[in-house]
Design goal:
The chain is an alpha/beta fold. The protein has one domain: 3-Layer(aba) Sandwich (UDP-N-acetylmuramoyl-L-alanine:D-glutamate ligase). It is built from 10 helices and 15 strands. The strands form 3 sheets. The chain has an 8-stranded mixed beta sheet, sandwiched between helices. It has a 5-stranded mixed beta sheet with strand order 8-7-2-3-15. The longest helix has 19 residues. The chain is globular, with a radius of gyration of 18 Å. It comes from Claveliimonas bilis. This is Fructoselysine 6-kinase.
Amino acid sequence: MPKLLGIGINTMDIYRHEKRMYPGGNEFNIAYHAAKNGTQAAFMGVFTREDPLSLILYHTLEEAGVDLSHSHFQKGTSGFAIVDLVKGDRVFVDWNKKGVTDLYPFVFTPEEISYINTFDIVCLSRCARVDNQKVVKLAQSGAAISYDFCDDYTKEDIICLSPYLKFAFLSGSHLSETEVKDLLREITARGTETAVATRGEKPAIAFDGKEFYYQKPMEVKAVDTMGAGDSFISRFLTAYLDVGKNGENADKGAKIKNALSKAASFAAEIVQKRGSLGVGYEMTEEQTERILQTLKGGKV
């Protein structure tokens, strides 16, 4: 069984139009989905015992079987974002910017690096509160890195990180197919083994430095696109690594095709649910007011 580690944010997505809240966060979602799909998954994040939202986030992963042994607890508030839903697409309205993950990012001690290097793949992203230098540090220590550039990457990010990645993901729905392919070529030419771009309703494209692979999205009625990319990444990696563990001599192209197919199928399941995971909680008027006051600079 492959081992996957997510390092990054955990946050509560507040759907104010529903008065419900949904656990989420890029690497949080990836670890949760990996565990649900039978992978040995862990998450390194920053939580707080002072905020009920953070405890819900922690227990959501714990109940899914995700190892949290190397997460931290700090004083402060949970991260959260205010979300509206427009025709199935999530729109971030605001976020608190001073959650514990923002205030206490990982430094990575020698003991933590040793732990990180026990995993087959380590998932990070531009949103993980782990700067480029720390990503490079982990890669140079021997960690196999999967990195999500998201859709707001810079040229400097591509140049800095591509030589150190095993997998690179990005959102390319705002780019033409030619632009996406050129970008995937650049990323792999700089050293990344496999680069993948999701493109919304258009086929995802993967490139291994030699060949392009396409995967059409499954035709389903999307209820909520929140976390669709994270679910795609999680299933792609677990499917790819599972074949690697059980068939080391399997053709790389076949592994990519298999991973793309399973990733598209799983993402189609997730977008038919509310929130990033399909796990949500009712909010009281008191909780809603407390969160709004926090955004306005009021006391928690």
